[in-house]
Amino acid sequence: MTGRRRWPRLWRTSVEDEVESELAFHLEMTTRELMEQGMSLTNARTEAERRFGDSAAINAECQRYGTERDRRAVRAEYLDELRQDATFAIRQLLRARGFTVVAILTLALGIGATAAVYSALDAVALRPLPYAGADRIVALYPTRKGQNGDPSPPEYLAYRTVAAFEHVAASVLQAGITLRLGEVPEMLNGGRVSADYFAVFGAHPLVGRTFTAEEDAPGRANVAVISYRLWMSHFNGDRAAVGRIVEIDGAPHAILGVMPKEFDLTRGSEDIWTPIAFSSDDATKYGEHYLKVYARLRPGITLQQARAATIPAERSVAERIPSRSMKVSDYGIDVHRYRDDLVGNYQSLLLVLLGAVSFVLLIACGNVANLLLARASARTKELAIRAALGAGRGRIVRQLLTESVVLAMAGAVAGLAVAYGLLRVILAVSPEDIPRLDQANIDWRVLAFTLGTAVISALFFGLLPAARAARPQLQQTLREGGRGSVTRDRLRPLLVAAEVTLAITLLVASGLLIRSAWKMQRVDPGFDPRGVLTARLILPAARYPTPETIIRAYGAIRDEAARIPGVTAAALTSVVPLSGSAMQSSVQAEGGPIDDKAPQTNLRFSSSGYFATMHIPFISGRDIAMTDDASAPGVTVINAALARMLWPDSDPREAIGRRIAGVAPKNGPKYRTVVGVVANVHDGALSEKPVPEYYVPYTQAPELIWPLIQRSLVVVIRGPATKGAAEALARPLGRAVARVDASLPLTEAKSMDQFMRASLATARMNTVLLSLLGGIALVLAMVGIYGVVSYFVNQHTHEIGIRLALGASPQLIWGFVMRRGLAPIVAGLAIGITLSLLTTSLIRQQLFGVTAHDPLTLGGVGSLLLVIAVLAMYVPARRAMRVPPIIALNES
Amino acid sequence: MPPTKDRLHGTLDALVLKTLTFGPRHGYAIVRWLREQTHDALSVEEGSVYPALYRMERDGWIEADWGTSELGRKAKFYQITEKGRRQLRAETKEFASFVEAVAPLLLPA
After folding, report:
1. Which residue among A181, A535, A596, A654 has the highest number of C-beta atoms inside a 10 angstrom radius?
2. Whose CA is closest to A579, among A395, A448, A757?
3. Which residues, other chains included, contact A119 with Cβ-Cβ below 8 Å and sequence gap of 6+?
C-alpha cells in the first residue's frame, strides 16, 4: 500500500505526460478496433476522436484532478511520516523518563510564565478597547507654557465648536455618589458627564437609553445611566431596573439605561453616570479646571491636525479671561490618544515583565538544548545505525526536531497550569486600577500564543543539537563503539555562557527594580500612617444648604469621633495624602511677583488637630485653631516646600506672619496670614517629590467651594498603632456619624496603611513578580551549569582516572574541573554585565532612588551568580576528585 | 449542482467502480466493457470516463499502476480500493431507492 501511495514521488514525470499518454493510448486502441472492423486509418481516427469527445477539455480536467491527487499524496505522505516521527518521538521520550520530566518541567516554567505575562499584556494593552473606532477617542488638555492642565467649563464649551471633532464630552469623576435603594444609602463611584459622553466612546447601552442633550441641563437632570456591574449586583440583571426611580445624592433619579459589560474598564470604574448639567454661569468659570474632556476625532484627522484646530478655540477663551496673567500665545492644547492615557504606564510595566519572562524562556531553552546535546551524544550509536540504514541527514534532523516539538508541546500543556497559577499571582499583586487586567484569562489568543511560543522554543533548543547529531561521522562512531567523541565540545560551554549572560541581564534589571521598590517602601511619607482611619462624608445639598449648616455638622461629627473610646485624636480635611489628587490652586505672596509664574500648589481645607492626628510635625508657629472661624481673620498653615518656593531666600520659619492669597482674578487677592509652617508630606505618590501646599481652616473655606467639593470632607481619627486597630474603629466611627445625622452614608472607611499599600502596589508587583522570575532564572541557570559540568566530568572520567593514577592530587583535579567549568561563566558574567549597562537604560523611568548603573546591584548580582555557579559545580567536582583510578582505567 | 446531473455523475462513477470489481483494467477496457454491457445504450462521450477516473483516483476510491496491456503497450491500470467498494455500495443503494421512487410513476404496472 505504502509503495503505491508513494508512486507520484517515484514517478517524477509530470501529470501532463501521464494524461497525454493515457488518452493517446485510448485513441490508438479505438482506432485499431475500428480498423479491424474495416475502416480506413483516416476514417477510423476521425471516428475515434468523435467518439472520444472534447479531448482538450477532458485533458485539462484530468490534469487538474491529477495535480490535486499528487498534492494530496505528498501531503498524506508527509503526515504519515510526521505521525511516525511523533509516535517514535513519544516512545523515545517515554523511555528516557528522567530526561523527559526535567525537560518538560523546565519548558513548562519558561513557556507558562511567558503565557501568563502575555495574557496580562494582551488584556491590558494589546486587545483593542471595546469601543467602536477606539483610536479616534482622544483626551484634551489645555496647556500653559507647555504645562498640561485640566479644562474648565468655558474651555470645554469652546472645544465643542471645533470641526475636527465628531463629539466632545466633559466629565467629572466622583469618588462618592450616594445611592439609596432601600433603607441604607451607600457610596459608589460615579461620573457626572455631558450627554455626548457615550457617543464619544461609541458605546451604546445594553438596555434602555442614555440621556439626551435636553436632559443634560439644570433642573432636568434627574436621570441616570448605570454600569453593568451595578445592574448585576443591585438589580440582579433585571430589565425592569430601567425606569426605576432611585435616590442619588439625596434626590430622586430615573434610571434610563444600563451600559454593557465592556464599559467597566477597571475594578473601580464608575457605576453611575448622571448629567453634568452646566448652567449659563458655568460658561464664565475660567478658573475652575476640574473637568476631563474627551472627544471623538472625525475619520482621517490626525492628532496634530486636531491640536492645530483646537488652539484657536483655546486662545479665544484666553482672550475672554478678565484678568489674565499670561500672554494669549502661552495658551495651547495637548491632544492625547485616550488609549495611551489609559494603558500607557501599565503597558511599559507589562512590557518589562514580558522582557523578563522571555529571558527566563530563553534560559529554559538553553537548558533543554543542553539536555538534548547530552542525550544526543548518548544516542550517537542509535543515530549512526539509523543513518547506516539509509535515513538521510534531513530525515534525521526532522526526526530529532519532531522530538523537540513533542517535548515543547508537552511543556506548553504543563505550562498552561503554570500560566494559570502565575496569572492568579499577577492579579493578586497588581495595582487595582490597571484597566481590564481582571479580564485576563487563558483564552484562545493566549493558547495560540502559547502554542507559537512552544514551536519557536522547540526550534530554538532543538535545531542546534539536531543539526549536530545528524553530522555524518558514521564510521568513526561505529568504530568507537558508540562512546561518542570527547574531543570537540565548544557548543556546551557556549550555551552556558549565553545562559549566564541572560540570567545576569535579567537579574540586574530585576535587582534594580526591586531595589527601587524597597527604597520606595522606605520613603518617609511625612506622616505616621499607623493607627489612622479615614472616611469620606458627603452632605446632601437638600439638608445642608448653607456653609453655616455644613460647618456646624462637621464640627459635631468631629467632636463625636473624638469621643470614640481608643481614639486619641480626630480631625477633618478635604483630601488625605496618597488618596487621589488634592485641589490645585495658584498662590501668590503679598508683595511678591504676581504675573507669569503663578505657581500651582496643593490646597487643603482642614480642621484644627489635623497635623496632630496625622503626626505631621510643625517647623514653627501654631496649628489652625477653633477660633479661626468664618468671622475671624483669614489664616493658613503652609508646608516647608511652599515657604521655600515663595521666599527662596529666607528660612521657612520666617514665613510666620507673612501673607499669601490664592490668585483670584475678579475681586483682587484675599490675603491670609501664615500662622504655622509644617513639614512636607508625600501627597500624590511616595515616588514623587513633596509639592508646595497650604492648609486653610475648613471654617474659612470660600462659599463657592462647598458645592464644588460636594460639601464633602474626610474624617481622620487616630487609634492605637497596633495592627488592625485602625480598621476596628470603622464601626464606632459609623455610629459616631449616625449620632449626628443617621441618614448620612459613610464611604468605605480606609486606613492610611491601606492608602500606603495602594501607593506601593506597583512597587510591590515589581518586587513579587521580578523576584519570582529572577528566582526561576537563577534555578534554571544553576541546573544548566550543573548539567554541563556534570557531563564534563562524566566524559572525562577516563582522563581523570589516568591523571589520578599518575599521581595527580585531588586538589589538582578540583582545579581542573573548576577552571573548565568557570571559564564560560566568567565570560557570560562579563558579557552580561556589559549588556546590562545597555538594557537597564530602558527601564530608567521605572527606577526610583537608584541609578541605572547602580554598582551595588551589579556587584551583588554578579557575586550571587558566581556563588550559585560554584555551588552547582561543587557536586560534580567532588565526584571527579573521588574517581577511583582503577574504575576509570577499567572502563576501557 | 442540480440533482439530475448529480445522479448522472454518481451513476457513471458507480458503473466504472462496478467494472473494476471484476479486476484491474485500463481506461480503454473500462469504456469497452461499459459499451458492451449496455449494448451501446449509454451514449456518453467515451472521453468523459477519464476525468471520472482521475477524480476517483484523487479521492482514493481507485488506485492506478502502470502495467503492460494485452498488446504489449504501457497502459495505466486501475484497481478499486476498499474505500471505492464502500462508495459503490452507497451509490448502488442510492440508485436503487431512486429507481424505487421513480419507477411507479414512469412505469405504471
Report:
1. A535
2. A757
3. A419, A423, A440, A441, A442, A443, A446
**What's the full length of chain A, in residues?**
892
**Inter-residue contact A113 to A107 (CB < 8 Å):** no
Residues 6+ apart with CB under 8 A from A577: A525, A526, A527, A614, A681, A682, A683, A755
Residues A273 and A291: their CA atoms lie apart, in Å, by: 15
- Are A26 and B46 within 8 A, CB to CB? yes
Q: How confident is the model at residue A486 (pLDDT cuts 50, 70, 90)?
A: very low
ipTM of this complex prediction, to 2 decimal places:
0.88
| pLDDT band at residue A849 under the 50/70/90 scheme | confident
Cell, residue A376:
544526543
Q: With beta carbons under 8 A apart, name residues in chain A contacting B65.
A: 4, 7
Cα angle A433-A438-A439, degrees, rounded to a multiple of 5: 130
Q: Does the model's pTM come out above 0.95?
A: no
A61: which chain B residues are within 8 Å (Cβ-Cβ)?
Answer: 50-51, 54
High-pLDDT (> 70) share of chain B, %: 86
Could you give the residue ranges of the DSSP H alpha helices within A195-302? 197-200, 228-235
A11 chain-B contacts, CB cut-off 8 A:
66
Contact in structure between A200 and A248 (CB atoms under 8 Å): no
Q: Please tell me the distance from the alpha carbon of residue A74 to that of residue B87, in angstroms, as a whole number.
A: 24
Backbone angles phi, psi at A335, to 5 degrees: -115, 120
Distance separating the N- and C-terminal Cα atoms of chain A: 48
Give the mean pLDDT of A343-371: 85
Q: Which three cell numbers stand for residue A191?
A: 461620573
DSSP codes joined into one string, A89-131: HHHHHHHSHHHHHHHHHHHHHHHHHHHHHHHHHIIIIISPPSS
CA angle A786/A790/A795 to nearest 5° reads 150
Partner residues linked to A589 by β-bridges: A660
* Interchain CB distance below 8 Å, B54 and A65: yes
**How far is the C-alpha of A284 from the C-alpha of A155, rounded, in Å?**
9
3-state secondary structure of A141: strand
What are the sequence ranges of the domains in chain A? 2-95, 146-325, 345-522+761-890, 532-719
A221 vs A140, which has greater pLDDT? A140
User: Which sign does the torsion angle of CA A623, A629, A633, A634 carry?
Assistant: positive
Domain ranges across chain B = 3-102
Q: What values do phi and psi take at A561, rounded to 5?
A: -60, -40
Residue A667: which pLDDT band, with cuts at 50, 70 and 90?
low
Fold of the domain built from segment(s) B3-102: Arc Repressor Mutant, subunit A (1.10.10)
Asked if residues A366 and A374 have their Cβ atoms less than 8 Å apart, the reply is no
For residue A481, pLDDT over 60 is answered with no
Q: What angle do CA A150, A152, A155 make, to 5 degrees?
A: 105
User: What secondary structure, in 3-state letters, does A29-54 show?
Assistant: HHHHHHHHCCCCHHHHHHHHHHHHCC
A412's CB contacts (< 8 A; 6+ apart) are A107, A108, A111, A450, A451, A453, A454
- Give CA–CA dist A687/A846, Å, rounded: 10
Q: Are β-strands A223-226 and A251-258 bridged in parallel, bridged antiparallel, or unpaired?
A: parallel
Residue A77 in contact with partner chain B when CB distance is under 8 A: no
A84 grid coordinates:
511516525
Question: What is the three-class DSSP state of A251?
Answer: strand
